[in-house]
Amino acid sequence: MTVYSGPVFDMAVNQFGVIANHLEIPMDERGRILMPKRAITVSCPIHRDDGTVAVFEGYRVQHHLTLGPTKGGTRFAPSVDIGEVAALAIWMSWKCALVGLPYGGAKGGVNVDLSTISKRELEALSRRYMQEMIPFVGPHTDVMAPDMGTNEQVMAWFMDTYSMYQGQTVTEIVTGKPVASGGTLGRREATGRGVAYLAKRVLKELSINPGTATAVIQGFGNVGSYAALELQQYGLKIIAVSDHTGALHDPAGLDIPALMRHASAHGSIAGFSNQLTFDPGAILTLPCDVLVPAAMERVIDAKVAENLKCRVLAEGANGPTTPEADLVLEKRQDEVFLIPDILCNSGGVVVSYFEWVQDLQQLFWEEEEVTRREYAILDRAFDTMLARAKADKIPHRTAAMAIGVEKVRAAKNTRGLFP
């Protein structure tokens, strides 16, 4: 019996079972490694603009605090439930351990359709959510960050609310803040940059010239847009993109800076071009060198996996590939080079860590140093994953997750069980 349920949580459990079997972890150890330490559900009442009161459900799941405070984003979306949040917290734990950060995983969210609330209501909801979370979070307990539906402004409201409660400014309570409020240079671009950097590394491994390569991006939010921009700067043609409003396809290559300006001004890619519209359902199976799923979980199922025509699958989103699809991709390892999500999109939490460190020290770095350090950590984790996959003859996802799970397990076993 568990409070967690749903397809995303089931997927996280399934993935852990594969890794636990591979590592031959005794059954009586598995629950302690997998199950979250703490789950919080709160009611967030706010005054609507029309004078009525609305109540939204908010969540936060802290997976483990064995290696340090928990770390993870906060998602505002109508899909949010406790099972999805728990799965994302679990994946964040393996991700932080894989890249060597002193964090456990966390995730939070509010079940809300942002199209139905005003900016003032969004501020009220953001502040109320953080107020409800104050007994459970802190710079050395749980550090929040942005995710789907939240941004730098929401993080500034979170930080201000927590700081008002403490009676002093506590910038290190959240990351992903505006630079003017204690954020770090390079954080906004960090996840997308990391996705593009690792994709370029793989193209080099495969002896594919970026100047002749093509890319397809599913999802044009923060991660997808900056991944597209960086890949274009590496010389790739971005032949298709999509978001929740539709898709665009141009074999000659899309103008990504212009598309980013349009999306920033209008909130989506809708209306950018009537001539380039394309079926969003077909975007994942377009022939290309690099495919970046950077939207939601579980978009690549077994059928899609069988029909992928990319050479590199760079998972910008969390959990975009189902366990059934993984079985297909395992058979297609020579055709599709997978960069698993816990490595591919880890640039965001890496630079969030840098922001936290800078806030604690009150000593800030130049953007070049932030990016250089990010790429150095990604290179090290990529090399470790690749060496493990080759040595054990296992898929890349299994190798990456095994490294993360091993580190968490070792820390728990070393510290022992209290009391």
From TrEMBL:
GO molecular function, one term: nucleotide binding
Annotated positions binding NAD(+): T191, N222
GO terms, biological process: L-glutamate catabolic process
This protein's record includes keyword Oxidoreductase: yes
Alphabetical list of Pfam families matching this protein: ELFV_dehydrog, ELFV_dehydrog_N
Keyword tRNA processing among UniProt keywords: no
SUPFAM superfamilies reported for this sequence: Aminoacid dehydrogenase-like, N-terminal domain, NAD(P)-binding Rossmann-fold domains
Protein's name according to its UniProt entry: Glutamate dehydrogenase
